[in-house]
Amino acid sequence: MPAEKPLYALTGLELLDLIKQKKIGIADILESQSLRTKAVEGKVKAFARFTDNTTSGIPIAVKDNICIQGQPTTCASKILENFIPPYDATVIQRLKNAGFIIQGQTNMDEFAFGSSCENSAFFPTRNPWNLDCVPGGSSGGSAAAVAGDEAVWALGSDTGGSIRQPASFCGVVGLKPTYGRVSRYGLIAFASSLDQIGPLTKDVRDNAYLTSIISGHDPRDSTSLNLPVGDYLKSLEKDIKGIKIGVPKEYFSLSANAGLEGLDGEVKEAVEEAIAQLRKLGAVVSEVSLPHTEYAVGVYYIVATAEASSNLARFDGVQYGLRVRSADNLIAMYKKTRQAGFGPEAKRRIILGTYVLSHGYYEAYYVRALKVRALIARDFTEAFKEYDCIVTPTSPTTAFGLGEKLENPLAMYLSDVYTISANLAGVPAISVPCGFSKKGLPIGLQITAKAFDEEMLFRTAYNYEQATPWHKLKPKI
Ligand code: GLN
């Protein structure tokens, strides 16, 4: 362990090791963390709020859409400004049982709608690698907190890429687990058939460790599966000689007529180099086809908005959060509350989602989207008959400038073109740093595996990471 490194710059498992050897105590970590936060948070603005902890434990940052008992949890929305959950999400309970404390709640796009963290009702978060750029989203606060060494590690949520895309933009590791691997109980729902909670960390080992803590069956989430949790740390010990990796040709030649062009040249190059590195490590790489890729974005924005419009119906001023009191009847109160409480992107999604579910359009849009979703899932099932994992870019570009895509929702939606399919298919996917652009912005490599094979993801990601320098580089803030 290089002694000159401040504690805040170490990984979670490095810190736990030092504690075990009795070289440091938890108070030392908390002190180092708080100094770091004081120095950079004013610039990065990763946190929606910090929590007062009366107990001491290993600090972790948590996205502001995961319920913490007695602690405001707002989804970065005005409509939940004064909502204080009466219970802990299952992942929070698991973290607490494992000796963690929640250091603070991270900023996000309102209700997780977005890819830049600019849809927060509070303020935008900035990318630690370049403060004029977005950190990605919607878990942008979690990614920025980890990248800027303000947090040892963090939890986020991923419905269409919200862990992986910000991880890629900020140069950290982010995992979306298999649908059903981690309990969604206490995660404020965006699209219930797509949402998963997962960790954002400084390296793959930390990610494997946190995933093993938060995973497992939960009777409170009927979609969580009762399957044994793998030994994720142990899976890192295996090399990747002979594993079969597929590279989907559609991801490198996205069809212009679906509006899906625009894989940045530097990203392409970095991913190609990463693939060469995986070959050097003994993986057998060949081209695979995921023929329905070009429909993913369209399908996602029907399914996700339909589910969101239904999930957000509960925020009506009656039971939770904001209530506008100046209305003279119930319907007017609903309207005024929702008008005042939701930001523009939330309103856009509610309108879109309500439309695709409405009489006369339900079959044409929603039901059709479900059929295509099944085809996208089948593409993966077919591919995984032959391959152990699939490797792609995480995002078509590096972090874009603040404000750059704010006026153009479609351009914003397209930044998830590579991450959305894994949610639609329910399979796990991880983003690991795989290089930097000439301007010094991180690039992410996405690895996808078959359902419940997180071990394969960690194993491949770790072997790649250990052979490359990217995870060791730090932004100068
Ligand atoms: N950026 C995508 C969206 O806006 C995905 C968000 C997410 O995964 N929560 O819907």
Describe this structure in words.
This protein is an alpha/beta fold and 477 residues long. The protein contains 15 helices and eleven strands. A hairpin with a 5-residue loop joins strand 10 (429-436) and strand 11 (442-449). The structure holds glutamine. Glutamine binds at residues 112-115, 138, 158-162, 190, 304, 416.
Give the gist of this structure.
This protein is of the alpha/beta class. The chain has helices at 12-20, 26-44, 90-97, 140-147, 164-170, 204-214, 232-235, 265-280, 296-311, 330-341, 344-357, 362-386, 409-413, 420-425, 454-466, and strands at residues 47-50, 58-63, 100-106, 153-158, 173-176, 196-201, 244-248, 284-288, 389-393, 429-436, 442-449. The two termini are 24 Å apart.
- Distinct ligands, ions and cofactors found in the model: glutamine
Strand order of the largest sheet: 1-3-2-4-6-5-10-11-9-7-8
Q: Helix fraction? A: 25-40%
Distance between the termini: 24 Å
Number of strands: 11
Per CATH, which architecture of the largest domain?
Alpha-Beta Complex
Order of helices and strands: HHEEHEHEHEEHHEHEHHHHEHHEEH
Question: How large is the share of residues in beta strands?
Answer: 5-15%
Essential attributes:
single chain; 477 residues; alpha/beta; Amidase signature (AS) enzymes; eleven-stranded mixed sheet; 15 helices; binds glutamine
